[in-house]
Specification:
With 592 residues, the protein is of the alpha+beta class. The chain has helices at residues 2-26, 138-145, 413-417, 450-478, 480-495, 497-501, 506-525, 534-543, 548-563, 571-591, and strands at residues 30-34, 38-40, 45-51, 56-59, 66-81, 84-97, 101-105, 109-112, 115-118, 122-127, 146-152, 163-171, 176-184, 191-195, 203-208, 211-225, 229-233, 237-249, 255-265, 269-273, 290-298, 302-303, 309-319, 335-337, 341-349, 352-365, 369-373, 377-382, 387-392, 396-400. Helix 5 (480-495) packs across helix 10, helix 7 packs antiparallel against helix 9 and helix 8 (534-543) packs antiparallel against helix 9 (548-563).
């Protein structure tokens, strides 16, 4: 027993040390670090406030005696080592002294887990100018003066309600941007998307976080969420070539700039999509969301049998015009109705789709009579009033003036019984010739002539020609691969015809090319536009056992279509992409 007590007492120091170490690991730290405590008036001071847990309401000191050149900029570091999480968050500033002397950088404060933490104040001595001042940190300087922002018009829309995303690149007047290119375009999964091309990149004046900037709009897109819940919009990332000023001067006293490449990202955005309310939803609601007008018209209401008229069902206004089907009229069975022709006159702006869509039915009456076209109802959800609305069309009466009477109608008995006897007179068969003259005339010279024997031998001469023709036809029919290639090339020309017309016009060409590629896949794989992501396409093509080169070629063309919105493309590149698209579609058609 005494041995056990002694053993336990010997372990107490170790347990105490372990408890202290664990307490230190869980302790919250918030401290200020200076790049140096003594510097010349022509040098720069970097101040960092670092914490080991995330906090809120960061309050920096007033930096008396200094001018803030950059900041605050944030940096977050998180890692797991042997199951232990390490976290660090830093607010950094770059300061320029305004006078010589000793200055105290006072306390900063932050709230972590509901408790206020303060850093310790530190003193900095500012001396006369030095010969070799420390250089500006060009990376930090670029980070503080270059921002890519995704401005979302609405973060809590209803399902199928339009929202817009505008990507702006903010550039401080103190730096220069010479070039940029997209690294990764966002995927709009679970959204119906429509790009609004940016025709010209115009720099405008603006403010960002209270500071003056110049900005340029790089990309605009309209999104219609296709399901409710929290949907993520992936960030747009750019590789930007930036010219940053240094402390060096040229021969004429001008500031010397250095060129660096920076990667900027617009950040991930989350959209909270509200479901359409179930209360008050009409039974005929078909998914229309917006503010609409509805009408049914006919090209004429009076006509004769076998003539045609057009019945037009039309919806106009603002909303998801391309994402719902129009109601169909219920017409009498005695009217012959052809499949409707769908027409769209829709333009897309940052406010969403605007215009009208219509279905035009060709109607041909066969019998005389009056045919009513019953009223049709159209229902939609209006996000502005947060309510469902229903519009009923007026009933239309089609009057067929002349034509046969429908045999299915009851027949008047007087008409049936009013028969008249037929009276014969004279020889009623006198129009029939009883003694026809069938003798041949003027053909005696043909028999025995050269023409006679030529016509007689002609069938024998056609036999070898027909054998040759049949063999040729069988050879063509047996060439399965050749026929497949011909069909594939013909299909490629069909889908790429619009793109070929716009060769030389970069924006129009790549819009038409992207549309051709998408339409081809829609026809072949039976997938909706909202499913068009490069990952989804790759997965579907791999499931169809399409070879890797063809899949990569198709995805590469889609990426070129996206990059063309931001980067210059030559006529040669456009021609190469057109040829590649023709080859890729041909290869896909042979394999799918």
């Amino acid at each position: 027993m005494k041995k056990d007590i002694k053993y336990f007492i010997s372990l107490l120091p170790l347990l105490f040390i372990a408890l202290v170490m664990n307490a230190q690991d869980d302790a919250v730290t918030f401290e200020m670090n200076l790049s140096k405590t003594k510097l010349g008036i022509n040098e720069r001071l970097r101040v960092e406030f670092t914490m080991n847990k995330d906090g809120d309401d960061f309050s920096p000191p007033d930096f008396n005696g200094f001018r803030v050149l950059m900041g605050p900029s944030q940096a977050i570091s998180s890692s797991w080592v042997n199951g232990v999480r390490s976290y660090s968050k830093t607010y950094s500033y770059t300061l320029a002294p305004t006078a010589r002397g000793k200055f105290t950088i006072k306390q900063a404060s932050i709230v972590i887990d509901g408790q206020v933490y303060k850093s310790l104040a530190k003193t900095v001595e500012i001396t006369a100018a030095v010969e070799k001042p420390n250089e500006l940190n060009v990376d930090d300087y670029a980070d503080d003066n270059l921002h890519l922002v995704a401005e979302v018009s609405k973060t809590n829309p209803y399902m199928n309600e339009a929202i817009s995303v505008v990507y702006k690149l903010y550039v401080s007047p103190s730096i220069r941007v010479s070039n940029y290119r997209p690294l990764d375009n966002p995927k709009y999964n679970n959204f119906w998307s429509q790009d609004i091309p940016v025709q010209r990149l115009n720099a405008e004046n603006g403010t960002f976080k209270g500071k003056n900037y110049r900005y340029v709009v790089l990309k605009r897109i309209v999104l219609y969420p296709q399901k409710s819940g929290k949907l993520d919009i992936e960030p747009l990332s750019l590789d930007v070539t930036v010219e940053v000023p240094t402390n060096k001067r040229d021969f004429f006293g001008g500031r010397v700039y250095t060129q660096i490449n920076k990667t900027v990202s617009a950040g991930n955005r989350t959209i909270n999509v509200k479901p359409l309310p179930s209360a008050g939803k009409p039974a005929n609601f078909g998914g229309a969301v917006g503010d609409f007008d509805f009408k049914v018209t006919t090209s004429k209401t009076s006509l004769n049998a076998s003539e045609s008229l057009q019945a037009i069902v039309e919806v106009s206004g603002q909303g998801n015009l391309k994402l719902f089907q129009l109601p169909a009229p219920e017409l009498p069975s005695s009217l012959e109705v052809y499949d409707p022709e769908h027409n769209e006159d829709v333009r897309t702006t940052l406010a969403g789709m605007q215009g009208k869509i219509s279905d035009s039915y060709t109607i041909v009456p066969s019998f005389k009579g009056k045919y009513p076209v019953p009223s049709i109802s159209f229902s939609y959800f209006n996000p502005k009033t947060v309510s469902y609305q229903t519009i009923n069309s007026e009933e239309i009466l089609i009057n067929v003036i002349q034509g046969p009477t429908n045999s299915s109608n009851p027949i008047n008995n007087n008409t049936v019984n009013s028969k008249q006897s037929v009276v014969t007179s004279g020889n009623q068969f006198n129009f029939i010739k009883l003694n026809p003259d069938l003798t041949t005339k003027n053909f005696s010279h043909f028999f025995g002539s050269k023409a006679f024997y030529l016509w007689l031998l002609l069938p024998l001469l056609l036999i070898p020609l027909s054998i040759v023709f049949r063999k040729k036809r069988d050879a063509i029919a047996s060439d399965v691969e050749g026929n497949r290639i011909k069909r594939a090339n013909k299909l490629a020309r069909k889908y790429l015809s619009e793109a070929k017309k716009t060769l030389g016009k970069k924006d129009a060409f790549y819009i038409a090319l992207e549309k051709a590629l998408h339409n081809y896949l829609k026809a072949k794989l039976k997938i909706e536009t909202s499913e068009f992501s490069k990952d989804k396409i790759t997965s579907l093509l791999n499931e169809k056992e399409v070879d890797t080169d063809t899949v990569e070629g198709f995805i590469g063309l889609l990426k070129n279509c996206e990059m063309a919105r931001y980067s210059p493309f030559s006529d040669v590149q456009m021609q190469e992409d057109y040829d590649r698209a023709s080859k890729v579609i041909s290869n896909l058609d042979k394999q799918l």
